[in-house]
């Protein structure tokens, strides 16, 4: 049934599916996991780093990109599509700033990206963008924001979310562990992001990349050492929690 | 005679059966050359067993030389990785033979060199415990199959977003009395290719066999997919064979890093 209605993007199936858009969402699942967390004074983006070939320059394989000084995004899916979307978003951020003399709000740039993606689901001869994006940042009012977009062009605000491979597992972990205590301060929010990624990342801390934005501060990318320190702390806390548990049962 | 869309004239099949039939039959009769080509192809397509180290062929049927009580087949890279790290890691396994297939779609005719892109099968037997590939009659043999399939092939009336992939499903023959380690494969899902052929054979010959099918959304070698096979380790057929699970996980991780194919399309 599906094969007769999935050739063109502009054709609905009899039961209302746009199969090309749904297939684009499958392409997103082929990208490695990205997780975003909105804390009280911080927003955190963590991604699973893909292992880089020996001769490849690591700096050119980045999943977390700044769109402006106060907004950044992580994506999952087709690398080339992401590059195009990011370029357009960056130009829009500067164009807006020059026109209106104010930096973009996170919601504005998310809406711009989502509208761009939606256009490609309604055009003849074009295919949808095969990426989902997590966009984080602080507005002028100082409130932290996290938005997620997907290939269909929808966008929603989230407290915490994950995209890419094994996103479901990470989202379930976040649903269980995203509590007010967990985001009480900045370091707790960072630890929550790393713990969520460790659920699905294959070789621990060295395959994780992390970026944070604090209120009125620019994007900060964590170095490998800093991530290792966080991972060691998390493992220590885990061990202590397990010791306490075993003491309670004996 | 009929004209097709492109204007070529095609002879339409005639159901009445006219005199033209005799002429057609003459054209279809085989010449000696046709027979020779067919024989040559049949020889090429023969499945032969050989030893990889010595490159000598095995004349005797493998099952006659090594009758076994437990026959475990892993199909596909994730299933093979699971078997290599968890089962073959415990105990010493000796390679007893290898079979390589050729048909008209293969690009090479080299019969002894194996490259990962080609279809082949390697047979191992456990040195320390000959009853696995041991001296029991075929009657007591039990077959276990492991394979993977993409989750988009899984048909269900439930919502797709409620599926927690990767997940395991089982399909067994009538003679397999043991309860399987996971839920059975529901209708209308079907099994394809080699696992289906093996299960059908076992059902016909009343051999107890079980297939563990892992539905996953990552078809290439992936740690989470391989670990989805772990419940099978508690089954009776594999219980005695698996000893060191933490070490197996380490071996699996190493296998994954060495076999990772670099692709920059998806990030």
Automatic annotation (TrEMBL), chain A:
CDD domains: proteasome_alpha_type_7. PROSITE patterns: PROTEASOME_ALPHA_1, PROTEASOME_ALPHA_2. PANTHER family: PROTEASOME SUBUNIT ALPHA/BETA. It comes from the Eukaryota. It comes from Odobenus rosmarus divergens. It is found in: Cytoplasm; Nucleus. GO terms for biological process: ubiquitin-dependent protein catabolic process. This is Proteasome subunit alpha type. Belongs to the peptidase T1A family. SUPFAM superfamilies: N-terminal nucleophile aminohydrolases (Ntn hydrolases). NCBIfam families: PRK03996.1. The gene is PSMA8. Its main location: cytoplasm. The 26S proteasome consists of a 20S proteasome core and two 19S regulatory subunits. GO terms for cellular component: cytosol; nucleus; proteasome core complex, alpha-subunit complex. Pfam families: Proteasome, Proteasome_A_N. The keyword Nucleus applies. InterPro entries: Ntn_hydrolases_N (IPR029055), Proteasome_alpha (IPR050115), Proteasome_alpha-type (IPR023332), Proteasome_asu_N (IPR000426), Proteasome_sua/b (IPR001353). Residues 5-27 form the Proteasome alpha-type subunits domain. Keywords: Cytoplasm, Nucleus, Proteasome.
Automatic annotation (TrEMBL), chain B:
One of its GO terms (molecular function) is proteasome binding. One of its GO terms (biological process) is proteasome core complex assembly. Residues 14-34 are annotated as: Disordered. GO terms for cellular component: endoplasmic reticulum; proteasome complex. InterPro entries: Proteasome_assmbl_chp_1 (IPR016565). Keywords: Chaperone, Proteasome. Forms a heterodimer with PSMG2. The PSMG1-PSMG2 heterodimer interacts directly with the PSMA5 and PSMA7 proteasome alpha subunits. Belongs to the PSMG1 family. Chaperone protein which promotes assembly of the 20S proteasome as part of a heterodimer with PSMG2. The PSMG1-PSMG2 heterodimer binds to the PSMA5 and PSMA7 proteasome subunits, promotes assembly of the proteasome alpha subunits into the heteroheptameric alpha ring and prevents alpha ring dimerization. This is Proteasome assembly chaperone 1. It comes from Odobenus rosmarus divergens (Pacific walrus). The gene is PSMG1.
